[in-house]
Amino acid sequence: MIWYVLLVATVAAERVAELVVARRNERWSAARGARVTGQGHYPAMVALHTGLLVACPAEVWLADRPFVPALGWPMLAVLVAAQALRWWCIHTLGPRWNTKVIVVPGLPLVTGGPYCRRWLRHPNYVAVVAEGVALPLVHTAWVTAVLFTVLNAALLTVRIRCENRALADATAPATPTTPARA
Questions:
Q1: Coil, helix or strand at residue 99
Q2: Which of 63, 69, 106, 132 is deepest in the core (most CB within 10 A)?
Q3: d(Cα 161, Cα 181) in Å, to the nearest integer?
Q4: 49-67: pLDDT as tens digits
Q5: Cα torsion at 153, 154, 159, 162 (round to 10°)?
Q6: How far apart are CA 72 and CA 165, in angstroms?
Q7: What are the distances in angstroms from CA 140 to CA 25, 66, 69, 73, 75?
Q8: CA 78, CA 80: separation in Å to the nearest integer?
């Protein structure tokens, strides 16, 4: 159990590192006239992700969940792969990556790395989904895995729509206006 708590603490530390990067990138974006949208769902996202980190060890401890090697080791591999994908996304987007929906108007969509259209439109969310399943299942916290997955699916539906709208608005070509007739 101790090693699992350390694993969850490591993921939590990774989240703190993400927030540091996000805050730095938010300042970069703001200096370039960025627009922040979708703030309504952001507190729910923070609460859900914090809840995942609390619920994983809590379920293992309270329900006396065992470590099952046939499940735990593959889920640990998925978790590591999810972290690698997330940091690939962060690296590819550079200062444009954020935990919030922040778009600098006029910048083209990123189409390199994992954002190449032939791969995935939202690879960071693939990492989030994989992590939400894998982290609990490393130590058979299946209730946490199911609850997080269901709640995260609802939240990602809202988040992806919001992000797609913001990206479409920011990358749309300016339309000429017709002068008013007197």
A1: coil
A2: 132
A3: 38
A4: 999 999 999 999 999 999 9
A5: 130
A6: 38
A7: 36, 7, 10, 11, 10
A8: 5
* Amino acid in the structure at residue 84: A
Token couple for 101: 């929906």
Identify residue 32 by its one-letter amino acid code. Answer: R
Tell me the β-bridge partners of 37.
101
The 10 Å Cβ neighbour count of residue 49 is 20
Count of helices and strands (H, E) across the chain = 5, 2
Q: For 11, what's the count of Cα atoms within 13 Å in the CB-facing half-sphere?
A: 28
Range in 35-49, 104-118, 163-177 with the lowest mean pLDDT:
163-177
Across 147-164, average pLDDT: 95
**Residues found in the chain:** 182
101's enclosing H/E stretch is strand 101-103
Give pLDDT, residue 180. Answer: 46
- The tokens describing 130, both together, are 């994989």
SS3 call for 111: coil
Q: Are 78 and 8 in contact (CB under 8 A)?
A: no
Residue 157 has pLDDT above 90, yes or no: yes
The amino acid present at 51, given as its one-letter code, is: G
